[in-house]
Please model this.
Amino acid sequence: MGTKPVLVVHGGAWAIPDEFGERSIPGIKNAVKSGFAVLEMGGSSMKAVEIAVRALEDDTMFDAGHGAVLNADGYVELDAIIMNGKTLAAGAVSCIRNISNPVTFACSVLEKTPYVMLTGMGANQFAEKLGIPQVPVEELVTDHAKAEWEQYRKYKQTVKSLFNTELVHDTVGAVAIDCEGNVACATSTGGITNKMVGRVGDTPVIGSGGYADNLVGAVSATGHGESIMKVTLARLILFHMEQGDPGSNSCPGAGTRAWISCIPDECKTPEEAADSALHYMEKRVHGRGGVIVISKTGEWTARFTTKRMAWGAIKEGVLMYGLNPGEIIQEIIKPSK
Amino acid sequence: MSSPPPPSFSSLGCGSVLNEKGEVEMDAIIMDGKSLASGAVSAVKCIANPIKLARLVMEKTEHMLLTDHGANLFAKAMGVPEIPGEKLITERSRERWSKNLEPDSNPQEDPGTVGAVAIDNEGNVACATSTGGLTNKLVGRVGDSACIGSGGYADNHVGAISTTGHGESMMKVVLARLILYHMEQGMSPVEAADTALNYMKTRVGGLGGVIVVSNSGDWAARFSTKQMSWATVKDDQLQYGIYTGEIHTSSVAEALESK
Model:
């Protein structure tokens, strides 16, 4: 089989305090290893990103599934997306309650409905029909999330100040390429502390919180949700990577040599594309965030404009992870068999 | 899109397609090309003008999208009147709903989405889109019209788009943003729209229609479906059409007189 599988995960881009950072890394490593095990056995990138994100949802260190933050009414409202780069099929859920693994539910939307996105009470009713177990709120909420919620209610912090001071837990995500060259992405979140009831951020919005296309690559985003949406960050990064690529169907003159504006200098690597888009987001709409990106050839990157982002990647027997800008720690790992 | 004076309900809110339970459930988005600010609502019920609620999301909150129950709570907080659901249902929408309850029906068409794009005399572009979605859709199904980049997008650096058609296909290709990407690469609105619609047809098998305005005031109304009702006013000239290749022209003055 042609492609060497790669998996990258993130656990949120924000001003992660030291003790959180230390405690995030084991969760990141566990998630990337779980997801990569799927790829090693010849499994699909879709399955790999779902498994990786489930591991992060089950870990209360991260703001997704268990450990999610509370909205203004003290409830947990969850969003997630998963996308298949081969078919462009996607499943997304927004503002769902009492479900442990929103990413798996998003997968059900993709596989069991003709739709891309389900929301709110309708989504929860559909989950019930599918027999997805509803868990009580208490099971999803941590003491920390409750304490943070109480603090924000007291001081009436807003989204803007939250992202400026970056005092918020964040989203989790994964991108992968499997041995058949299929890419996929998945992103999951509990949103922002004390958000308005019904607030939906970038995570479940296709093209913003995530996007995957075999012709280019896959992206999962985290950070200031509203800013990510304004620039449709995931899709923007892939546009940068597409520019000047003769193989891309969405480029002008695709399949012919009649390029209108093929500028070789514009053709960007995942890192250049990510930096360019994040820089644009900061300049144009004053928002910060982080992304993980994988290209159709298996190149990957983890980039962020926030103080920190917990991330991990496995490629060719090497586990890499980091937290601080420019930091890449490597470990050789044994095959899981 | 302008709303009628209260209390009549002649916007899409009234007459929209119905979800599987026979209720009106709507998505809408509005976007400001200058700041990239945007407001959207998804799965809202009992609101006559969802686009107005979307605008309130943009102007009165720091968020971009409110959904379902939360959107309705916000509407209440803003003093937006809640209309009894039955008042938004018309004979036609009920008939269509009944017909599509038949087991062999396949309600894929999107007869109800409306939208607008504009450029003002300061060169600011904007877009707005509003819909009841797919007839007989699952409760809670959200289509492209609430999703920034899919149902609409506006950026003063390029232009503005509003889309209509098979929602899921438009989401898969992030249609509005894709068209603006082509325009950024140098295509005209017509070329960009046709390229993107053709891509959507070949890649995901979906049909749709778009209206586009560039930041220099060029515009296009293109569709891969059999028909799309559209109209444009530019330089005191009104143009409109329904079927492929059809363009009627008259002066705005004439059109107003004949009304």
User: Anything to note?
Assistant: Helices of chain B lie at 50-60, 68-77, 91-99, 167-172, 175-184, 189-204, 252-258.
